[in-house]
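User: Last request for today: this protein with zinc ion, please.
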Amino acid sequence: MGKIGFWQLLLDDRVSYWEAQSINAAHDAADVAAGAAQAAQFKAHNIETRVNNMAREIVFLRTALTVLVKTLKDSKVLDERLLDARLEAAMEEAAASLPKQPTGPVSMNEVLASSQGTPASVKLTCIRCRHEVPASSTLMTMDGPMCERCPT
Ligand SMILES: [Zn+2]
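Assistant: Here's the final one, the structure of the complex with zinc ion:
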């Protein structure tokens, strides 16, 4: 349903001013939510493109490094065992200096909870069973939050 306009409100006595305001406000909120969803989708698409590009670069770098090491070893200009030992030591050092692998959020709700600064212990009412459950154990459906226990 679209927004209720001024003339429609004036001429149709089935709609009160308050109802029209509520419907229009809900309409605006839906527009805002749709816009936010679109922005998030765009952002996710950008990140996906970047990850794909980085994956391609890693493949190229790995190939180049493999060819380089193989060529060096075949040319016998250096001690193969020394190269291996040095590479291994350098790799270990590099791995140790890397930041610990982050354990990313598991569910969309954790993402939402962290981005909004609300604790994950927020309770939501499941639309199916009407139980109050932690937001982190719910799935967002078209109709609202549903707990993970409820079959979809
Ligand atoms: Zn439920």
